Amino acid sequence: MLIISPSITLPESELVERFLRADGPGGQHVNRTESAVELRFDVINSPSLPEEIRIRLLARRDRRLTSEGVLVIQARRFRDQARNRDDVRERLVEVIRGVLVPPKKRVATKPTRASKERRLVGKQQRGKIKQARSRKPDLE
């Protein structure tokens, strides 16, 4: 059981783990052990996630999310499988907790009159500088 928040928990049956060989440090031992962990979590078909959280999770532009709605997270930071397993689960919890709080609505604002005037004055000054560059000296 993976605890996300007091109201949301994910059962082990919804998490699919696959172990693969990791690259990186470890000497010859790394060629014989499958210490990297790939965790797959089916966001679309998960009965444990509330609908609004599922929608927010799917709306994220996350490259770890497949087109079928499966979140794939890999961990190969550590040399042993158990630590990578814990790491991948912690990262899944962080991703889901990141969408628990709904984003704040953007309040549309208008620029102040003074800021509009400052912008226009700046544009005029910049235009004068550019015009001065292009003028050719009068030859008499």
TrEMBL record:
Signal peptide: none
Principal EC category: hydrolase
Record domain Prokaryotic-type class I peptide chain release factors: where: 21-37
Keyword list, A-Z: Hydrolase
Bilayer-spanning residue ranges: none
InterPro entries, alphabetized: Pep_chain_release_fac_I, Pep_chain_release_fac_I_sf
Biased composition (Basic residues): 125-134
Source species, domain of life: Bacteria
GO biological process: rescue of stalled ribosome
EC number, as in UniProt: 3.1.1.29
Region of interest called Disordered, as start-end residue ranges on this chain: 106-140
Molecular function GO terms recorded: peptidyl-tRNA hydrolase activity; ribosome binding; translation release factor activity
Claim: Hydrolase is one of the keywords in the record: yes
Assigned protein family: Belongs to the prokaryotic/mitochondrial release factor family.
Protein name, per record: Aminoacyl-tRNA hydrolase
Annotated organism of origin: Rhodanobacter glycinis
